[in-house]
Every structure is written in structure tokens, then in C-alpha cells.
Design goal:
Structural class of chain A: alpha/beta
Number of helices of chain A: 9
CATH architecture of the largest domain in chain A: 2-Layer Sandwich
Strand order of the largest sheet of chain A: 3-2-1-4-5-7-6
Shape of chain A: globular
CATH class of the largest domain in chain A: Alpha Beta
Oligomer: homotetramer
Radius of gyration of chain A: 20 Å
Number of domains of chain A: 2
Chain lengths: 344, 344, 344, 344
């Protein structure tokens, strides 16, 4: 029932939390026509069979992925499949001229050597020549023209938005590392059942994991001009949200006013990033279900503590993918992303 | 920035959970222009000061309620103020020809004696001559023409949608009571801090309250043709959602097939009520943030167990109010209410 | 470090939630000496490797189960292994003269035909001749002498304690079924990760499961003198606790005072069952981590609504097992079970 | 029913979460006789009226506080009353020769000027001459002899136990600040209902509060030899637990092995502090309901990340108070505190 000027989009992968959130956003997007829905393991079944929230909501049939069919549809492809898998899918689509937005980790680096060091040797390194890192606040112009967008990781999104204005404005002491103490809801651990996401071992408790050894740190470091990033993620007993508490050492003479000015300037025209007033603390509940990022600034002596809150499935994944889609398709950047948080 | 054919709406009360949810829905509604936002205690302050989720989202200024101003705006008024207060506000608006959708309990009965018996003497009984009970599945045609709509209680909505088809189709044994064992999220207890909604005494525990003594029972009984309703509400450690587990005694000879047929027929054309397939259990998470109601049917011997799931702030309050608004304004009934649940 | 007069106990199975709770209670029990700890898959590893809560707490080594070794130790065996497995383990132990407390479903019925109908054919039906149903409020004297105790299911414990005094005192209408609407925390679904217990699909939502088709119903019916029991279990987003809301039709002429009198009498000498005062609602949080059961009574017309709250891992499993152990070993019945709930 | 050699203890304040936890621990303590229970607002009422978890558990009557009566009882007094109030209560008791364990903030500093700077002018500065800071890992010998013990704050306990071995062993770079990113369950916000602890605004979200401006920072700094402490507390949607993630800059040449050695040595004889093996992450759920502290060590380059997990109501308050009580009374230090965590 799309109108003529809607953008056709095929969603590949609709069983994980990220894929379902992408579906939710695409379905509600007034400028998008959902041209196809692929999920190999669920092909031929009504989506509502395993996702009853979609009962009686009209959707295209769930089909097996077929690169030729996607190409024939003229659609942009949005991939919400596991990393590794996304490499092959992407290569097949690029070869057929389809533009791709990949939510996995597979196309976040353009250097195959870096990818290999962080993950594993890339099966289609030639794709990386085309990839653009899908953080509009960094690469808006390139995303508009991109054949392939690698949507950033959830943690790197939160940390980069928290730290980048200070880095760019030259507020930080020379050679000091960025310290990112981050906290994520349980959906960050994915939908496959395991000890890391069962209720009895995630609710009513709090812990860190992969301390100083998580694969998102190199992505953050790259985004922040090569600074060392010490990254410690924690697991919060809630479904959605990331709060990044980022500690930065200020250069001599930099005071709170100058910090605030740098952030206000950096984000003055950003539709999804809000710098909160003095003393206000970002809270993940205030961005839940949205593509927004709230930033809070705190200075004491020469320490700058920046806090940023996003929805890990929103601005940290599917929301950001839709923002990139809007740019690639020449739509208003905020289209389909203007809703307020579900509260509470 | 509304277009010419949008419906102007003034929202009165935007600090409680119901009001904020109404604001969220109205703000996202493509056919509505938010013509005013009234909250006496917060007048003159940016809404984001106490609701930071609304930071940088354009809204009308928060003003004190002024019935003349509302009348001058030509808007429909949606009231999310406490019961008692709503009586006066409504009377002032009706007197000026403003159509009113009241989310409080004040206009759910058209008989002042009944209202007085359940709540307290009504201050403006003359308003009750105009009120229509805002359950579209019951009173769609009257709602279209109504000057005043009393939006149903959250529990009565869930229980009525669960039981009404069986009552209407004559499936139930004579003289048997309806037994409604209901479970609600904590937002049902409102936003004013108290022992009933603090984290330490609502999370990690489960209890009933007001057993067989809750004021929603008479509303249910009225909706179900005067049958006795035994109603026991429980408090679930979650934010949103009601599950009603309703037990009904079937008349001799009524079997599962006939039950299913009655429900399928009753809800065939209802855009927001889905009868789930055999064996499927409604889950509040599948309707969270929506105006939908999922219904499950289970029969054993002569017992019919119907389960219905709604969002208490959605179909149980603000979503239903918007559905009524659509009807009153001659808009498509589902406009602004087509989104899928936030999952998870 | 046990003293001479402590009871030696071997715990078989210490990886599931029930087994860990049994370990917690036995470890803290002043009258018990933990003589052995068996867990085949974890044998040879320190328990703290997979249960870090036990770091630096002295325990016997984890060993493979060996019936001869248990017999040689002179201990009572407490089994927290899956049903099915428990049949063989029990038979081996009984053959060696070891007294057994089985937490699984395998020895809750003394009739092999009933067991087969509810579960599957029993592999050691001869064991059933010796089994005593481990609900002290029903079978205290027999438990003292038992060679084998089958610890009741969690739901049957809650429902039986709620309904039995009314049944026994003849308060109920003839031929009327018992209706048990029950709500359990997520640990009731066990510790093996699956869609039924992952955080994203159990938190922030509420649903029933196995409506009118759960295997605990026949156990309840047997306990309640053969009355029909309609049983609907629900899943609460919390770790521990069961609230049973039980609906009973009173015989003509039975009023609230007579009901209260019957319950007060039935439980006057029961150390773990408390009948709450008029109007008070049992709450699972008030019995968390304990062997207690709180009972609330509500009467309207001829309907009796009894609510009982237990900890599904406490009075619903491991606590009850320890209560039986105390009886079998001639210890004070409340020994090791006197603590108050963890609040909150 | 206490035996002759039990220590008599009077608990003053039993309505807040800390007081109730103290009651739970004292009640279960085999070496303590609860000689009195004072709560002015609840005097004369059964405790179970507002704390139904205590239904049918024998306790002394709740009385108004009377310093003479406490003195006459020969008991040690444990105070769980608000700070400010505790100053007067303590002074009255000290004047009568009663030994006092104060859970409030009132006697954590021995310098009135420091107390005044952090809180407000002290009403009884003469008491501070007698106070001993109740962290046994720091002041065990003095606590044994103390007339007055000021139980440490929950955050300072977690941070001090995490950082002190590194400070004492001289592992840290000169002049570098300690950075303490801490996360606490909601009971840390107390039991008085308010926006900071209602379910709808604490569950399903995560935020910091009082960033770099919390009153516990000076207490930490004092404990750590006057080092600057940058302290950022966060609120976790769970009831109990603190995880402190503490970042420390190592002196040149200090490697992971030397760090581990220092911590192993420092805590070798500490009954309640466990240093977890390499790679293991402390989790608050593993210490819930206990007096234990789990410590994890992570080193990368010259950054040391120490994580410590405690129960804020246990080792962070009431558990620590009982540990001090044991020392003051000449009891085994671990008596009444040996239980394992409630899991889950």
C-alpha cells in the first residue's frame, strides 16, 4: 500500500532483537515501503508464529534470501544477520548493484587488516573499499552517496558521541587515554538463550564483562582519532539502553564553560543529539525506543565526565540504520524517527 | 506545523503516566495538530524540565487550563486529570460547546446514582446525560456523534473484551458469575510516590490488592449485562500491561468450537482485537505501547477461560482515547495507532 | 566441623536452582553436617567455578554420585536431579537402606498408574510402595518414619495449603470445582536457558502458560480429596515466589467467620503457615528465601477467595525438603528454617 | 530464649531498609539476644503491622527509645536512624556507658570540622573523640575496644576495599586520582517514597546521579590516604548490591602479577573479602544477603581496574555492623554472617 514516492526496502534477518526493531521502525516509517522480508529459518511461516506481537499486522511474506530478487525489486537492503554471514550477503548484493545497510560488525572498518585483527580475516575484503561508517554525526555527506554503510556498534556510538566534540575541539590533555565505563541492557547480549541472558542470572544483579578486552574498543579508538580507549562494559538488568560514562582529562586552562561551548557547537544542528542543561543526568529511559542521544557534561578540576544515553537497539542499531537509510534515499533525515520515548 | 485537515486537540493534564502516554500518541499522530497543552502546576515551564524525554521535541507551551481559550481554538479536549477534577473541567468545556474525551472515571456511568454509589456524588450530574462510554467495540456509532466520551477503566476494558462475546452469544450458564482474575503493571498505581509503587516494594514480589472490593467491578458488571463480576486485581512487577484471566461457566452443550466461532465473529471486523490461534497465550509484552488487545481461548469441560492482554496505558487508557478521537473527528479509526509493540 | 549429633546429609544435584537452594539451607543448618555433594557433570571441579557465590565457603568436594559411598556415609540423601533420573538414583539408594528425600516429581504419587498417566511409565514402581508425600501439614507422622519422601510440587504446595482447610471442614458446595489461578517467578522454569526464561522475553511482560493443561493439577486434585481442580499457571517477571489465588464456592450458610475459624484451627499449630488478619494480602516478597506460607482469606457472597504466598524454591521445594529432613531425623521441625525473608 | 552467653543487643530504628536488614541478621545470629527493639513512630504496634514478613516470628515489643532503659539492659546499641538524629541518640547512650554501633553517617569522621564541611555542624562533637571507623579490614583492633563505632557508608566500603591494597602496597603512580565509577541498587535511595525510587522511574532505565558531587567522596579520600577521589554513582534497577569499578594508574614497572600478589596478601586472612581468579568478574548477585565482598583485578598497560561487589545493605551497612558487633563483644568475627548468597 506504499505510495509512489516511498523508498522500497528489503529487510534481511528479522528474528533477532535488532532485526525486529528494524522491522518496527520500517513498518511505521511513512516514507518506506517494505518490499521484502527475508529470514531463512522462518521462510514460509507467518512472522506472528514466532513473533506474536505482529499478529494481524499486514507484512510481506517471510522468504528465503535471494540476491537476484532483491536486486529486481530495486530496493535498498538492510541486513540484520550475524556478523560473518553479512559478508557474503553483502558481496552478493553489491555485485548486483544493490545498496546495503549492514547492522553487523562486518563493514565498520575499511581496512581488512584492522578487521582481521579485531574479528577474523574478512571473506570479501573488496567490499570494504565501498563501506562508509554509518555515524551521520561523523560522515553525513559520505553516507548520502554510499553503496555500503556499516552501521556502528552500539557502544562505539554512545562513546563516540560522548567524546568526539572534546577531541575535535582540542580540549583534552595530550596523550591521555579515554576511559569509557559503559552499561548496557540485556538485549545487547542477543536473543539466543544462554547464561548471559537468562532472567535468573541477569535480573537483580550487576556485573562487568570482558573488562578491557571487548572488541568494540578498537572501533572507538579509530573514531576518536586513534586515542587509546580503555573500555569496560557492564550488564544492566533492563531490556534496552546504554549509558556511557566517559572520563576525559582536560588540557590545562580548559574550563566547564569552554567544554559546554564545544558541545553546544558540535551538536547545534544535530537532530538526534541533545546536550542537557547543567546538572541534568542522561537516563536511558528518556531515549527508549527512539533514535535520540542525550548528553550530560560534568567538570571537576581537570576531569571531564561526559555521560551519553542511547537505546542500544535504536540509535545504537536499528534507529541509526534508518537514519542512514533516510540519508541514502534523499529523505528528510528525521523521517520515521520523530517519536518520543515510551515512558515508562 | 499541522496541515489544514488535521484535527486540533488540546490535552489537559500531562504529568501523570496516562497524560504523558496521550501526549506521546497525539504527538506522533499524523492527523492531529496539538493545539494546546495544559498542566496547571507546570504552566510556564518547558515540559522537558520534569519530563526530560521531551528534550528538544517541539511542543506547544504548557499553559494553565482556560476553558474559553480551548473553546476559541476549536479543538477537541482530551482530559488526563484526576477524577473529581475532571467533572468541573468537563462541565466548563461542554458549556462552551467543546467536545470532551475524559480519561478519568468521572463519565463512565450515565446514571448519577450509580456513580455516587461507586465513587461519590457527582458535582455535575447534567454532564452525564451527554456521556458515551468510550469502548468502540461496544458503542462505535454513538462515539462518533458524542459530545462527551468517558474512556473506560483499564481493567473493565480488558475484562469486557474478554467476556462480552460469550455473554452476547448466549454461551454462558444462567445466573453464573463472571470471575475476573486480573494482573496489572505498576503504572496502574499512578505516578504519585507511595508504598504501592516504590521499587523496593513492587519489584521481586507479587500480591493481590482490593480483593473483591475494587471500584472497577461495577463498571464491568454494567458492561456485561448486569452479571455479577467477582474481580481480584494483582500487581505485577513490570511497568505496563494488563492480563485478564476470566473464568466463565458455559451453558450445557456449548463446546470449544462454538466458543471460538462466537469470538471470531464478534471480532472479525475489529481493527484492534485479535483472537489468537488455539493454544496461544496472550502476553502483555506483545501489546506494549499499542492500542491492541490479544485474546486467547481455553475450554475444559464446561469451563471457559478467556485471557486478554492490553497495555493499561494504551488500549486501557490513552490509546483508547485516541481511537475515540478518531471516531469523533471522522478520521480513519486506526490512524496514529498502527505501530507494533516495542519488543522487548 | 560438624558436631557429633548433627545429621549427615548427602546432596545429589547442585547445579539447578532447587539444588543450589537446598545447598544454601543445608549449609546454614546448625543440625546438619553436609557429608557429600554430588553433581556428575561438575565432579572434580570446585563448586565456585560455576557458582561463584560459593567462593571461599568451605564445602565437601563435588563428586560423581556413588550409591555405595552414600550408603557407607550413613547419610540421608536429598535428591535435586531431574525427574526420570531420580527414579534410578532413588532405587539404588533404597536398595542400600539409604533414606531418600526426592525433590523431583518422581515419587509424589504412590500409584504407578497415576504416575504413568500424568508423566510416563515409572521405571521403578516398587519404590512407590515406600513413598510418603512430603507435605508435613498433611502427613507429618508418616514423614517421620518414611524411607522415601516425595517432596510436593511448588504449585500443589501453594494450592493445597490454600484450599485444604476449607475442604476438610466441609465448607464447600458439593461437586464444585476448585479454581486455582497461580503465578510463579521465573526460577520455576528452571535454569536451562530457553525462550521461557530469557530476560528479554520474561521481564516487562506477563502471560499464562499451559492453561488447564499443567501436570500439577492431578497432584492438587489428589491432595484435595479428588475434587476437580482447574489450574492456570502464570509467569511473573521476578525470580522467586508463587502466589496462588484460589476460588472456592461455599456451601449455603457458610459465612466469613466460619471460614476464618476453620483456617485458624487448621493452622494453629503449624509453624510455617500464617493466616493473615482480615484484609491483609499475602505477598511473595514477605516469604522470599523462607519456608513460610502466608494465607489471606476473602469472602463475598458465597465465594471464598484464598490467597497463599510461598517461595517456590523454599516451601515449594528446598525448604520443604529440609522440613521433611528435620522430621525424618528427629530434629526440631523448624531447625535451620527460622530466618525471616530477605527484604527487599 | 537466649542462652546465658549471648550478647544482648538493642536495635534502635527498624523501619528503614537498613534497620530491617539489621533486624534480620540479629534475629538469626546464634550469639545475639535481641534485648529490645525501638522505633518511635511504630511503638506499641506489632512489627508485622508494617512489616508483614515478620508475621508469627517472635520478637521483643516495639518500644519508644529510652536511653535509661537501654543502659539498664546492659546491651550494646545498634542505631539505624537517620543521620542527624543519631547524634543525639548516641550522645545519650555514651553518657550512660552504653557502647554504640551507629549505621548513620554521623560518626564516620573523628574531626568535627570535616564532618561539618561534608554534612553540617555536629551537635555533639565530643562523641567524635570516641568514634572508631567501623571497617574491620582497616581498624580491627580499635573496633574491639571501641565505645562508639561509625559504620562506613556503602560506597566507601566498596571503593576502599577495592583500592586500599594498591594504595598501601605503593603500586600507584604519584599524585594520580582514584576514579570510582559505582553502581548501586535502589534500596540505596532509602524507603521513603519519592521520584528517585518509584518503580516507573527506576526500573527499565539507568542513570548516574550527583556526578562528582556525592558526599561519600571525602570519606573515600580519607580512607585512601588523602588521595583525590573522583566518584560517580549510578542507580541500577535492582534492589540490592553495589558494584564499584575503580580505575587506578599504576606506577611504572608495576605489572599484573605484582598487583595480584598485593591483593592476595592484603586479603589472605580476611574472612569476608575474596579475590576472584584471573578473568572472573564480581557480580552483586553472588553476595546478595551476605557480608561478603568479591574483588576482581584487571590490568592493561598501566591501568588497573579493580571491581568490588558487595550488598549495600550487607557489607555496606547491616552486615558490617554485625561484624563490628562480633568484634566488640569478643565473639567469633564471622558468627551470624556465614550464609551464602540467596541465588537467584
Amino acid at each position: 500500500m506504499g505510495s509512489v514516492d516511498q523508498v522500497p526496502v528489503v529487510l534481511v534477518g528479522a528474528t533477532g532483537y535488532t532485526g525486529v526493531e528494524a522491522l518496527r521502525l520500517l513498518h511505521a516509517h511513512p516514507g518506506v515501503r517494505l518490499a521484502g522480508l527475508c529470514a531463512d529459518r522462518r521462510a514460509g511461516q507467518p512472522l506472528a508464529d514466532h513473533l506474536p506481537a505482529w499478529t494481524d499486522i499486514p507484512l510481506p511474506p517471510v522468504e528465503r534470501f535471494d540476491a537476484d530478487a532483491v536486486a529486481a525489486s530495486g530496493a535498498i537492503a538492510m541486513l540484520a544477520v550475524p556478523h560473518g554471514t553479512a559478508q557474503t550477503t553483502t558481496a552478493e548484493l553489491l555485485a548486483r548493484g544493490v545498496r546495503v545497510i549492514d547492522l553487523s560488525a562486518d563493514h565498520r572498518f575499511d581496512d581488512p587488516a584492522v578487521y582481521a585483527a579485531v574479528y577474523a580475516p574478512h571473506q570479501h575484503p573488496e567490499s570494504l573499499k565501498h563501506t562508509v561508517y554509518g555515524l551521520p554525526e561523523l560522515h553525513r555527506a559520505s553516507i548520502r552517496e554510499a553503496r555500503l554503510v556499516g552501521v556502528p556498534g552500539c557502544y562505539p556510538t554512545a562513546v563516540t558521541l560522548a567524546a568526539l566534540p572534546a577531541v575535535r575541539a582540542g580540549l583534552l590533555a595530550e596523550g591521555e587515554a579515554v576511559l569509557a565505563d559503559c552499561k548496557s541492557g540485556v538485549t545487547g547480549a542477543g536473543r539466543s538463550p544462554g547464561p548471559g541472558n537468562i532472567f535468573g542470572e541477569t535480573s537483580e544483579g550487576f556485573r562487568a564483562y570482558k573488562t578491557l578486552a571487548h572488541r568494540h574498543a578498537p572501533e572507538m579508538a579509530r573514531n576518536l582519532g586513534g586515542r587509546t580507549v580503555h573500555f569496560v562494559p557492564h550488564l544492566v538488568p533492563m531490556n534496552r539502553g546504554i549509558l556511557a560514562t566517559v572520563y576525559l582529562r582536560l588540557a590545562p586552562g580548559v574550563d566547564a564553560a569552554r567544554v559546554r561551548d564545544a558541545y553546544a557547537t558540535a551538536y547545534a544542528d544535530e537532530p538526534f543529539v541533545s546536550v542537557l542543561p547543567d546538572g541534568a543526568h542522561p537516563d536511558t529511559r528518556n531515549v527508549r525506543g527512539t533514535n535520540r542521544c542525550h548528553v550530560g557534561l560534568f567538570v571537576a578540576d581537570r576531569l571531564l565526565c561526559v555521560q551519553s544515553a542511547i537505546d542500544n537497539l535504536g540509535k545504537g542499531a536499528a534507529g541509526q540504520a534508518v537514519q542512514c537509510l533516510n540519508l541514502m534515499a534523499g529523505r528528510p533525515e528525521t523521517e520515521g524517527l520523530t517519536q518520543a520515548a515510551l515512558f515508562p
